Amino acid sequence: MALYQLINVAFQFLDSFAFIVLATIGLAIIFGMMGIINLAHGEFILVGAYATTLSFQAGLPLPLAMVVGVVATTIFGIILERTIIHRLYGRLLDSMVVTFGISLVVIQLTRIIFGTSLSQIGTPFGGVSYGGFSYSAYRGVFLPIMAIVSLVALYVLFTRTEYGVRARATIQDEETARAMGVDTDRMYLSTFAIGSALAGLTGALYAPTITMTPELGAGFLVEAFVAVVVGGPSVLLGTPLAGGFLGIIDAVFTYGWGTFIGQVALLTAAIFAIRLLPDGITGLIETIQEKRSQSQ
Amino acid sequence: MSSEATPTLTQRLRAPFEGPNTIGNSRRFWAAFAIGAALLAIYPILFGAYAAGTASVFLVYALLGASLAFIWGFCGILSFGQVAFFGIAGYTFGIVSINLTSYTGATLGIVAGIGVATLSAALLGYFMFYGGVRDVYVTIITLVVALVLHTFLGQTAGSEWAIGEAALGGFNGMVGVPDLAIGIGETGIEFGGAMHYYLTLVVLILTVLGLRALVNSQFGYAMVATREDEARTEMFGYDTTFIQFVTFTIGGAIAGASGVLFVTWGNYIDPSEFAITAAAMPVIWASIGGRESILGTMAAAIAIQWIQLQLTGEWALVIVGSLLIVVILAMPDGIAPRIGDVPDAIRQYRQPAETPAAAEEVSD
Amino acid sequence: MSTSDPTVKESPAVAETGVGTETILQTRALRKDFGGLTATNDVDFGIDEGELRCLIGPNGAGKSTFVNQLIGRLEPTDGTIYYDGMDITEMPSHERVRKGISIKFQVPSLYQNLSVRENLRIPLQTVVDPSAFDQRVDELLERFHLEGTGDETASSLSHGQQQRLEIAMAMSLEPKLMLLDEPVAGLSVEETAEIAELLRTIRDEDDVAFIVIEHDIDFVESIADRVTVLHQGEIFTEGSIEDVRNDPAVKRIYLGEEQ
Known about the structure:
The structure holds three protein chains of three kinds. Chain A is mainly alpha-helical.
């Protein structure tokens, strides 16, 4: 019996890990690059989820519908960046307030146009059975794989492409990057587009498993914010490690005591993390790397 | 605040409530303030006790808004968690007053409600500020706290979630909360209907005056200095961590007071008061009204909540959201700081003999 | 601990008291590591009451790092700091300031959006009664040649005025030890001379000890009682400005030839 409980917790961990990573990457990229907390992050996820669901209902096969979801969210993000967001760089608190305004507008417009809910796409892939129990293959296997694939893709993007090199330079030191010819405006636009795309991906991937209501974005916020705080500004280092760490906490506490206790545990973890690691896990890793290079 | 010969009585009375830290330090301002207060006072007479009882909630929101304007505008603490203390106080009052009926119950409920809210703010403030949490992370943590409370209270639907006679009620909320009352046993005063309105108005005016005095005092300067440059202020001998902690706790107390007034207005409270939209409303009021102006924020709270009520239907929030975006982009400090410009703008308009450049002199 | 060296030009304050003055600050084996870099290496530094000490050294010598540890902005990795007879190594910054240490940072740190008067009020209200504010502010404005600027916004002042305002703010706390990190950076020759005179006057009239970080050698010469040369986190040498200026070893470290 204990083995099966262990497998169950393992699946819960993978489920939580995937959820936290996917909920966070879009937010973390924008935060890491521009220092902006996008309070409309949940609504970017909403756009991705709704676009996916609507395309699917219009007849597209699911993978294609998901692509539509990502593309729609990216376009949405680019439009917002060009019209509103780019005026707020350097105005951190103002950006939070304005993005909250955007969030309100998007949720309400969604409700006005599409009503209180859409019918959900069914969850594909069925279940994984183990000794009389079963866990959703989609959430326990597929999504964790997608989370890892996303992280790897981001790694490649940041380390092997020209964009990535320029992005890292800008994050390190904007003044110098600009002096070296990096078009920081373009950089912010591309980054915001990528962040939007990732949020859209999250919406697309989770569309088959959550209820399609205009408020669905709110369900991702606690995890995303806590992960950003714990992980620190680096998407490559901080987010996956935060995902792993918080995923364990979430799995264990939610499994044992329910959603509320799980969230309390996450909140507590966040407070402890900030206390001990002011720059999140990112800062911790950097300190370790420094210590290691110095002892050589 | 230059004093000529000897200050007159009114000048001396006004002195503690004026200073460079508050917007509005002229006779014009106090005249407008007095007129505003008077208008609010005769509202029940003009529109009847029932209308006043219904309108009381707007004053309650104004008080909640004031709690945020105080900590954000003057100390730079952007908290999405004021609603948490608001709700905690409301639920606490409900629990105490439902279980201990009679005037004693209600009175204890007030004390307990505000007390628990203040304690919660102190606890959260302690963990955050003494833990080195600052700026955007404070905002995130306070938001997460409100959301977590929302989740918690949302799942209290079962009958096991009752404290004594008071059922928490899950998403349906806590019902049957008695009216506000002060007294012991069977003797006391009840504050329902128009009485609730007047009580809230009095609390509101006292809070405005109290906060203005505080903000213009030495502590107020310490708050402002901490907001402007915490590191530097520390180097002038200020315990900035303590300053933020105290400010945040006071903000929690005021939010708690508004929570008690809220739950006794509708005799009801539910977890939606902790949801993200509710959590953000004080931020919206302060952003639009002007976070450095307590009165501006209060006015914005009343106006925006009233607008939302009028525009029943989905477009209300669309308009509020759009208004928020436009105001922040065009007037990052909110509307209140600009009000002083209006008479000047009118004067400019009336004297087109000025050069076009001077006529366009609206401050940025 | 510094001794009375008859070849060192003594400040009038010392001369008046006759007997050797008290040490106001002393560090013992102070050390600060940043990962692999040792910015402060086993420093024993002492300064007497009323002494004006200049801290010089090539870039990267660790001067600002040292001073930041004195005020408590940085935590030392090891060692002790004694001030006025107390061990202040663990004391939080704001308490040190209350005990009489004051600092003016290298980077401009005025309250840009507040008026000059309000800027001064903030440090002042920790030491004087509200009833005395206006008078003290006016005194400070006069002393630091900022008359008439009281109601102007700090950000609208000239660079020289801002430097003087910052020094005024630090001085308003009536400290016993003032830490100045590059007080004349970016100032003209006249403004530099003005500040030099201000510092000498304060030292003479108020018996304030100073630790001044500066690169301008002429400025240093015009104010210093003694000079400490820092190099690679260690005290390279100490002495009068003449001794230090003529020391070939000091010249070499500035030229980078010495390790």
